[in-house]
Amino acid sequence: MIPNVVSQHLEDAASQRTVRSVLTRAPHVRLLHLGRLDERLAANLDGLSIAGEGGVRMVQASLASPSAGALFVAAVSALAHRDLGRIDRLLALTDAVPDALRALASAFGWVSAADLRGIATPLLASSEPMHRWLGIAACALHRVDPGAALASALEQPHALLRSRALQGAGELGRRDLLSICLAHLIDDDAACQFAAARSAVLLGDDRQAPQALQHIALTPGPSQRAALALSVLRADPEAARALVRQLTTQDAPLRTLIRAAGLAGDSKVVPWLIKHMSDDVHTRLAGESFSCITGLDLAALNLERKPPEGDGNGPSDDPSDDNVAMDEDDRLPWPDADKIATWWRANGHRYAPGTRYFMGEPPSPAHCLAVLRTGFQRQRIAAADYLSLMKPGTPLFNIAAPAWRQERQLAQLGV
Question: Fewest beta carbons within 10 Å, which of 95, 103, 150, 319?
């Protein structure tokens, strides 16, 4: 073992996992791009594995100052060695590391299903709620039904476990659990309420759950954005427009309205979106919503402009600048409002008012599968939701799975 080389593998793997957690929901990343990162991450994890016990010691030493990336690498290593004791110790660190649970779950989702044999079953059977949480998360990420263990977890007093089980019911297409999801629409825990509403909508309920989800969508909170997106996608065109109008009457932020308008897919809003492309603060989001309706790639069609000088969005290099938040619109094209207005005048007649459009066409299973193959990650998220909404009981396509696993599933679906 060459320590400097192995140390570099460790550092790069932890860093790439952190980058990957952002790119899975990025507006500029396609499956092809995700695959390139996944190949580099896999190569670094292989380098650590080849280092044997020396690599294990270095991974363990990195937990002296743990990060989400380090926890991911350590969990992948523990799974490779089928070491449940190390998994226990990693779970003990979750309170000390931000995003630790998501990092551990992503490690279970990264490895192959074969690597989880003999691991997932003891976790699901454990009396410890967080062990069961991790077991259910692992099964859900691989879209493998844990059977009775999932139904049992839905009724547990531990809110985090209950929430993950409710989420898993929708991801796995467990329509037999719909009635239990509906019962949890009035759960004492807000996260459980959202998970129950989202899953019940994906499983086909068209009465109680859409109303509950829309209530969350209209109420400021951590689940509002996700609830609004699914509420708009599952509504018919008129109901989607009504929801956007209701947001307007509640003085919702303009960004929320622009995002919802794009998901609603009504060509009537395109002139309004073009107007906001002249506003540097909202121009990129307006361009993304325009693309969500029309299916146009603004950069590929030369419908973009240069960024303004001194663009102040996101963190800067100034150490005295307190703004450390990532720019939500980072890497989106800067649309040229004049060019797009000209394009719309020539082509807008192709988009019938009142008809819902998603990436240039009315949503259909074949079209959504095509978006899963070629679209950007945010577009792929909507495509996956559409597929489950159009055929309740269809497991939700996992757009965050390793790229090679997604490629294999798309090939099985004939895409």
Answer: 319
